[in-house]
Write the structure tokens for this entry.
Amino acid sequence: MQAYAKEQKYSWNYVLDKNNEVADAFGANRTPECFLFDKGSRLVYHGAIDDNPSDDTKVTRQHLKEAITEVAAGKDVTVKETRSVGCGIKRKS
């Protein structure tokens, strides 16, 4: 992942969650599953990136982008939770 991130020129951090501690703390069950917090560390959005994870040409609402835009404008997030669709997170036993 580090080589891929460097190749893609990602400028953000990511977490290698070997023991599922972060996933458990957030209550994450799928990947991708987004958690957006405001400047007061309050969870303001939880869910999918958009409304069509299987076909980006048919996206009608970008949930995460809308939530970020609303938070940045000092507004309440209008859609606070959506259903995440993706691979289930496998927990270590």
